[in-house]
Design a protein that fits this description.
hydrolase activity, Rossmann fold, hydrolase, alpha/beta, 7 strands, 10 helices, five-stranded parallel β-sheet, 2 domains
Length: 207
């Protein structure tokens, strides 16, 4: 098909583990009982996580759920405070590359995020140095979360872009699969070094 050869014009980023470095988990390990663990893979696919990321649960409601589910001997308010800290920083390899990439592509974000982490992206991490805020599509604001195809369709509509014009970068296979099923170019990447190497290749191909 000729559409597969059309040059991407938009690079659509996931944030966690792609642009933003995350800590080991949202809660301190010493809060958990002996033999208990916080399974991140299970968490990301859980109904409660997706409900929080779609803005259907408040931060306090999430904290109360975690307190009950994990039998935590701490207040919901403390759970909220710790959960907020989970994103650590923008990977240090990326700022200069993102600025350079903006000269070649329109940059946008589709992120499963929430009311606790979203403000930090701008207030602490200065995300708007690299992405126009109106092109940062946060799941809790658009009320749609990956891998739901409707989240991608919403973003395409807002960008006024055809799927083949978009290159999507994400660390989770199911999100990449959904993007490809809609006609987007998509690449699974994780961590600052891997993402930086890929962005360097995109920039080099423009020279």
């Amino acid at each position: 098909m000729t559409t597969s050869k059309r040059k991407a014009e938009v690079v659509l980023f996931d944030l966690g583990n792609v642009v933003v470095e995350l800590g080991a988990g949202p809660l301190p390990a010493h809060w958990l009982s002996a033999g208990q663990s916080f399974d991140l893979k299970q968490w990301f696919h859980s109904d409660v996580a997706l409900a929080f990321e779609r803005g259907e649960l408040s931060a306090l409601e999430l904290a109360e759920y975690l307190q009950r589910d994990l039998n935590l001997d701490v207040s919901p308010e403390l759970v909220v405070a710790e959960f907020r800290k989970w994103p650590l920083r923008i990977y240090p390899q990326l700022p200069a590359l993102l600025i350079k990439l903006r000269q070649c592509y329109q940059l946008a974000v589709l992120s499963n995020t929430n009311e606790l982490h979203y403000p930090r992206l701008f207030n602490e991490f200065d995300l708007d140095k690299y992405f126009d805020k109106e092109l940062v599509f946060a799941s809790h604001l658009i009320r749609l979360a990956k891998p739901d195809p409707e989240a991608f369709i919403y973003v395409l509509d807002q960008l006024q872009a055809e799927p083949e014009q978009v290159l999507f970068l994400d660390d989770m296979k199911e999100n990449v699969v959904t993007a490809r099923s809609l006609g987007m170019k998509a690449q699974q990447l994780k961590g600052g070094e891997e993402v930086a190497a890929y962005l360097n290749s995109l920039i080099s191909n423009q020279d």
